[in-house]
């Protein structure tokens, strides 16, 4: 079903140490985690607290370009500790999921896949489903949300709709190249059209000097993934619909996001930061910087307020 769909169109959080461990030695050994590959080749990891009920909120964690589900490892552990369940996914064309024709893997197609995954959670009885997406994963999450059935969106590494687009780059400084030209992916038998970052490009793109552990940058480079060409072509967000009216949305940018705040280099003063929550000590990939704990606390605080509203609404519906 997924393939036919895309073919049709206050406790301290020690994040840097956890990230280094996760990136250098990828693992799914967090408590109560279950890996699964759907019949259509989408790899997922469902992690849950010891006690789980239909009222347990589920966050569907969606990575961005050239990453996979490991981007969310440390966040998922903290979410489970706080009583959330998480479903981390390797989107089609990434990680352990199937790698079909990358020219057909548009953000809209990715959004349909995410929506199907979310509805699978709904069919299992979960009442509260939140899409938590980063960068192009955030844009794919916006596509998913328009199909309905999503309670809230957390969107990091993107500006609010209509505010700004990522800076355009010339061919000379374009940081991506065909995956088959990269030694890490040269022997893969994927269809042509997968891209990845050029060697040494990631720290300048995704991190901010002085706000990350050098070991994280090295591990990030070693464990980079790819991105379908069709998705990369839509990175400016111009084809992505805004969130549905009335849907709770938390938009977050790292203060020194080089992709979204190129005018001033500081999202607190750049027009792109208008209306977004700004996380200090962070570049584009907030989860990899020293500001990650602040991002975690922000999301959990915001969710606790929104979920209280969902719970009251659900109780009213049940009473009716």
Could you list some keywords that capture this structure?
320 residues, alpha/beta, Rossmann fold, eight-stranded mixed β-sheet, three-stranded antiparallel β-sheet, 31% helix, 16% strand, disordered N terminus
In short:
The protein has 320 residues and is α/β, with parallel strands linked by helices. The chain is built from 9 helices and 11 strands. It has a single domain, classed as Alpha/Beta hydrolase fold, catalytic domain (Rossmann fold, 3-Layer(aba) Sandwich).
**Radius of gyration over C-alpha positions, nearest whole angstrom:** 18 Å
What is the CATH topology classification name?
Answer: Rossmann fold
Q: List the secondary-structure elements in sequence, H or E.
A: HHEEEHEHEHEEEHHEHEEH
Spatial strand sequence of the major β-sheet = 1-2-4-3-5-6-10-11
Low-confidence stretches: 1-30
Q: What does the main sheet amount to?
A: 8 strands, mixed
CATH class: Alpha Beta
At CATH's second level, what is the architecture? Answer: 3-Layer(aba) Sandwich
> What is the fourth-level CATH superfamily?
Alpha/Beta hydrolase fold, catalytic domain
First and last CA, distance:
35 Å
- What is the helix content? 25-40%
Number of domains: 1
Total number of beta strands: 11
The secondary structure category is: alpha/beta
């Amino acid at each position: 079903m997924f393939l036919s769909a895309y073919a049709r169109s206050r406790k301290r959080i020690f994040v840097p140490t956890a990230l280094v461990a996760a990136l250098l030695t990828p693992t799914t050994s967090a408590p109560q985690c279950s890996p699964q590959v759907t019949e259509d080749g989408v790899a997922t990891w469902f992690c849950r607290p010891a006690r789980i009920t239909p009222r347990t909120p589920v966050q569907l964690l969606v990575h961005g370009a050239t990453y996979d589900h490991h981007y969310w490892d440390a966040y998922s552990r903290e979410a489970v500790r706080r009583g959330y369940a998480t479903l981390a996914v390797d989107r089609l064309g990434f990680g352990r999921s199937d790698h079909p024709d990358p020219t057909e893997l548009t953000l809209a197609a990715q959004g349909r896949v995410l929506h199907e995954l979310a509805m699978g959670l709904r069919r299992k009885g979960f009442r509260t489903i939140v899409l938590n997406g980063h960068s192009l994963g955030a844009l794919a999450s916006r596509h998913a949300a328009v199909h309905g059935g999503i309670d809230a969106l957390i969107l990091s590494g993107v500006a609010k709709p209509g505010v700004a687009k990522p800076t355009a780059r010339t061919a000379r400084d374009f940081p991506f190249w065909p995956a088959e030209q990269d030694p890490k992916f040269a022997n893969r038998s994927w269809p042509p059209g997968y891209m990845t970052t050029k060697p040494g490009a990631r720290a300048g793109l995704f991190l901010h000097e002085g706000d990350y552990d050098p070991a994280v940058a090295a591990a990030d480079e070693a464990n980079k993934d790819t991105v379908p060409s069709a998705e990369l072509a839509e990175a400016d967000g111009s084809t992505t619909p805004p969130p549905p009216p009335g849907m709770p949305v938390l938009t977050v940018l790292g203060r020194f996001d080089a992709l979204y705040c190129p005018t001033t280099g500081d999202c607190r003063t750049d027009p792109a930061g208008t209306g977004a929550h700004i996380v200090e000590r962070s570049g584009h990939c907030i989860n990899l910087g020293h500001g990650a704990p602040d991002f975690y606390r922000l999301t959990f605080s915001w969710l606790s307020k929104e979920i209280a509203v969902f719970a009251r609404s659900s109780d009213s519906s049940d009473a009716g």
